[in-house]
Design brief:
The complex is a heterodimer of chains A (190) and B (394). Chain A has 190 residues and is of the alpha/beta class. Chain A has a single domain, classed as Pyruvate-ferredoxin oxidoreductase, PFOR, domain III (Pyruvate-ferredoxin Oxidoreductase, domain 3, 3-Layer(aba) Sandwich), CATH 3.40.920.10. The longest helix of chain B has 33 residues. The N and C termini of chain B lie far apart (54 Å). Classes of the chains: A alpha/beta (190), B alpha/beta (394). Chains A and B meet through α1 and β2 of A and β8 and α10 of B. β2 of chain A pairs antiparallel with β8 of chain B.
Chain lengths: 190, 394
Amino acid sequence: MRKLTEIRWHGRGGQGAKTAALLLADVAFNTGKHVQGFPEYGPERMGAPITAYDRISDTQIRVHSNIYEPDFVVVVDDTLLHSVDVTKGLKKDGAILVNTLKTKEEIIPLLNGYEGQVYIIDAHKVSMETLGKYFPNTPLLAAIVKVSELMEEDVFLREMEASLKHKFAKKPEVLEGNMKALKMAFQEVH
Amino acid sequence: MAIKERMSGNEAVSHAIGQINPDVMPAFPITPSTEIPQFVSTMIANGEIDTEFIPVESEHSSMSAAIGSSAAGARTLTATSSCGLALMWEVLYVAASNRLPIMMQVVNRALSGPININAEHSDSMGARDSGWLQIYAENNQEAYDNTIQAYRIAEHPDVKLPIMVCQDGFITSHAVENITLLEDEPVKAFVGEYNPEHYLLREDETMSVGPYALSPFCMEAKRAQAQAMMNAKKVILDVAKEFEAISGRSYGFFEEYRLEDAEYALVAIGSACGTIKDAIDKLREQGMKVGLLKVRVFRPFPGEEMANALKACKAIAIMDRCEGYNGNGGPLGAELTAALYRAKATAEVVNIIYGLSGRDVTVGDIEGIYEKLVKLAEGENLFGTYPYLGLRSR
């Protein structure tokens, strides 16, 4: 495993990219890591492009700058591929994960010639089948954990179950759907 | 037992506030400090603390209510940022001159304009001469630790001054990072009960607060207030020593990072200091003798102590996250340069304006400054006459 893993999230305001970044920091913290999860705010409005970041490390994190050469990039909304240079600075030995209904062959030409690994997931499908509503965060979280190999699937699922149980103590029915979404996302990302 | 947690800077200071359980909190929301009154009022609603929360219609009102509450004898708290702090201007001086030990959480943000919500020190730096104590933090841990120490400093009988506990907007206030918390009991025991000597609600003593004073008395009152600021120095160090005993974390007026044998030093405040430390470690590996003086306490200004720590350096860059609009640089630059002159330091000194309105600062930016400092010591000035870090040419 890498000593320091840096992840950049691209989404639109209201889609929960910041929440997803903070959730990833949370679950990494629970496995004993040093973490940093933070948003970069531009104009605060629904639908505007936003960026969020994660640093996950075995040692203390002191740096307080944005991430310019990430190991991994997650794109929450594939319409951003036309307006934002999402692969800028992305390491060749890293990977990009795109949430899309399209095929990988359709996505690759939109990545400015990125030479590293490309992964896609249809978070819409996963979310609708397991949660009945469109919450792309949960499937994307599982997908980036698989792509980045930040932790083993069973460790991740165990930590998520514990934290969701705590978070939804008053709504236990939500737990099952979320756990299904996480498990299905592990299978669906490719 | 220390508690390992992860939380944002705003969550961290709110957690400390919950452990302290102050008497009164008047507050008006403003980004990026809004979460603090939000978290505190949630704790109140959940019955976790019994602080009296006063929703007010402006920051001028929140500070005015804080003054009333503190004068009445209550341990008082508020929080703000940017133009919220600017709106308090008039009454900041009333709080300080009436010697009211109010704690204010300042989540540093740019003042207008252009309108911007991101980190800059212009808000609290603008209030640097209002008579408030000011303590700054590099990260969530320091913001938490400073909050726990704040009332002990402000309420000390030799001080009795209000205190701003500052952290960088978004960069630390909204970033989730690891933190080590103290348990409630040691925090409560450390902070203790507030028992002011004089207060409005004391039945056996009548007093007036904030009256007019004639010229024969005003100057003496102001001199006494200045003395309180000077007295704060000893108190800050004593409180830090006691805090180390319960936390294991040591604090002073400033932190010296690999400064002991440094020939080239940066002086900075706040979150950029973590980035500077990473740059220092990289450059040290290449054999460069570089270091950092991270300012924690800006008011009172530990000029003599800082100058002594920097005296042996060949070249120093003083970093201001604040424009002075005076053609002479930023506030830290101006005050520290004067202190270095008094200490007869011979180092080359440059004052750099950086990070305005949240402009990002990278390890590479900092490495570039150290490389230019080496040249400056050799007599070659690559900084120019009025250096701005990372300024775009178009």
